[in-house]
UniProtKB/TrEMBL annotation:
<keyword id="KW-0130">Cell adhesion</keyword>
<dbReference type="GO" id="GO:0016342">
    <property type="term" value="C:catenin complex"/>
</dbReference>
<comment type="function">
    <text>Cadherins are calcium-dependent cell adhesion proteins. They preferentially interact with themselves in a homophilic manner in connecting cells; cadherins may thus contribute to the sorting of heterogeneous cell types.</text>
</comment>
<keyword id="KW-0812">Transmembrane</keyword>
<dbReference type="InterPro" id="IPR027397">
    <property type="entry name" value="Catenin-bd_sf"/>
</dbReference>
<dbReference type="GO" id="GO:0016339">
    <property type="term" value="P:calcium-dependent cell-cell adhesion via plasma membrane cell adhesion molecules"/>
</dbReference>
<dbReference type="InterPro" id="IPR000233">
    <property type="entry name" value="Cadherin_Y-type_LIR"/>
</dbReference>
<dbReference type="GO" id="GO:0005912">
    <property type="term" value="C:adherens junction"/>
</dbReference>
<dbReference type="GO" id="GO:0034332">
    <property type="term" value="P:adherens junction organization"/>
</dbReference>
<keyword id="KW-1003">Cell membrane</keyword>
<dbReference type="GO" id="GO:0000902">
    <property type="term" value="P:cell morphogenesis"/>
</dbReference>
<feature type="domain" description="Cadherin">
    <location>
        <begin position="149"/>
        <end position="257"/>
    </location>
</feature>
<dbReference type="InterPro" id="IPR020894">
    <property type="entry name" value="Cadherin_CS"/>
</dbReference>
<feature type="domain" description="Cadherin">
    <location>
        <begin position="470"/>
        <end position="587"/>
    </location>
</feature>
<dbReference type="Pfam" id="PF00028">
    <property type="entry name" value="Cadherin"/>
</dbReference>
<keyword id="KW-0165">Cleavage on pair of basic residues</keyword>
<keyword id="KW-0325">Glycoprotein</keyword>
Amino acid sequence: MDPRNSCYFLLGTLRTTGGLRRTGWEHTGTAGDGLSLRRSKRGWMWNQFFLLEEYTGSDDQYVGKLHSDKDREDGTVRYVLTGEGAGTIFVIDENSGDLHATRRLDREEKASYTLSAKAVDKLTGRDLEGPSQFTIKIHDINDNEPKFTKDPYIASVQEMADVGTFVVQVTATDADDSTYGNSAKVVYSILQGQPYFSVEPETGIIRTALPNMNREVREHYQVVIQAKDMAGQMGGLSGTTTVNITLLDINNNPPRFPQGVYQFTVPESLEPGSTIGMLKATDADTGKNAEMEYTIMDDQDMFQISTKGITQEGVITLTKTLDYEKRKIHTLRVQVENVYLDPRFHSRESFRDTATVKVVVEDVDEPPVFKRPAYIMEVKENAEIGTIIGSVSAVDPDASRNIVKYLIDWRTDMDHVFNIHPNNGSVYISRPLDREEQAWHNISVQATENSNHVPVYVRVLDVNDNAPTFDNVDEAFVCENAKAGQRIQTVSASDADQPAGGHRFFFSLAPEASVNANFTVRDNKDNTASVVTVRSGYSRVQKSVYLVPVVIADGDFPVQSSTNTLTVRVCSCDRDGNMKQCNSEAFTLAAGLSTGALVAILLCVIILLMIVVLFTALRSQREKMEPLIISKEDVRDNVVSYNDEGGGEEDTQAFDIGTLRNPEVIEDTKHRRDIIPDSLYPSTRRLAATAARDNTDVQDFIAQRLQENDSDPAAPPYDSLATYAYEGSGSVAESLSSLESVSSEGLQDYNYLSEWGPRFKKLADMYGGEESEDS
């Protein structure tokens, strides 16, 4: 064997101790023309084989050879292999110990296999050498190309970045063995994207390669990176990926107005808050780098400018009312600048721009203007008609200064309580006033030159013209066992007047009720009064109701007073003063039902009415449906029941048996109740009778009856059962009915039944046998 192949397989010697050793070659000296080699035993322990992956040969791949010192090569030793893949992936020649791989192996699937081998005596089955474990390692070959972890990569870098600025790092992996050779050593290179970007061969880091790359010139770049194994040498496998790089915007462009002067024309009647016009500056940057702020540089308060967030436009709005007569043109100086600045590139001053804005005011024929926005006037309610309560004043703001006329908008004074002098604007009373009916009058005065309105609020001042009255209390209760001086009710008063100092009411008992009074009134000095008993003990039997007149006077001028009656009812009370019973009205009130109980009773009545109506409707519906159901049953069954029971064979008067034998004797006067009488269809009945005379055979008879029913429109439906009890005429056996046995005077001879054949044998045995027994 060639010693140069000793690195690919193993020659070993199994010693009696079971130790597997490898046989190798060693140098023994030098000769003149070469080396002299001598075989010797090595002293190191072997434990592994090596095998190349992806074997492409047609035969099994040779791994190595196992050999025992006890093998005399006489065929008595058998080698046994166990472990991972033994018998399937790896096989051993049990006689020679040669080890082979039966199929192609892939290191990326499994890198090593652990097996055991032993030598066995074929004759005795005894182990000559104990099991010895070894490993088969799969040597890697370059059969996997590098693969990137992403495809594509998305990356970004700021515009104007310095050369060498980090962009992104790409990574490729190789499934080959990185510890064996260069199969897994990957080198990166750039195939597309130069001269803008570069890649580091060892790390895969992509960096910028050109300075001052401007996003406004080009924003997106596509770079193709290649990863090649075998350290990039010839014959290595490679893979590629795409890197999409976007330049991020920075604020390197200032905002600029497209024009230097803007002019807007607005009418002087424009309302404050309205938009005058919009300015639009341009900025080549995007996002927040293009956000702008507009400012009016002039010292004024007539206009203001703001930035519209989406469009970044400057919106000029009016803050005060314009006046053509005072100023016809307003000139503004507007400045625009970026909100976010980048001091790395430019100074703040270079990122500003200004423009001139001219606002031209147009003259409008304006209505008269009142000197005040609203007027408040006061008048006493007892003022006489024609009294002037105040005046309004308006002027024409236009340069012409036209004369102003005044009038009241009658929609705000439908009752025409007030009027106005058209020339001077004096407001006067035209109808009497009543403060208690309406304390405030809100009217609108119109000044005409074009039309303008001013609200006028007329307050009617109060005069003391109303008397006070009870404040929603007119009834009280007193117990029969009440004591003198006991308070039974506290009363208060109300007055429609509204005096400036507030109300002050005085209470007293009417003079006419002071004599023999049962109750008295005590003023509490706080606009209330207490009704107090004068004596002890009150009887409901003697008197159940007392009327107490109370005089109430106000403290204004002139004094107004009124007499109010308090109804006091006598009630029976317990010892603690709790009322138990008053009068008949109290009984009625106590016995009355609450609102909830009345609602419940009403709901019960409604439910009962609904049940009665529903029951009546169902009953009416059932009565309508019954004739239809009976009619359908008649059509389906067509069964007519007569409930007529015959009298047996001896009853010859119940019906005529001859009718069943001969249809010719059917009485024409008897009609079926379920069909139309024959008289309505004489031609059909006549034809059927003629056909029956010509042929009385049973088959012809049934055919005639069938034809008769088919052609009769009054006959029952097809699914009805029609029975024709006709035995036929001319039969050899004649009639077998026992109905005719009544007319027989003696016993009949039934011997002839035996002559009719096997069909009548049973009858012949029955009747013939009895006759023979009697004889």
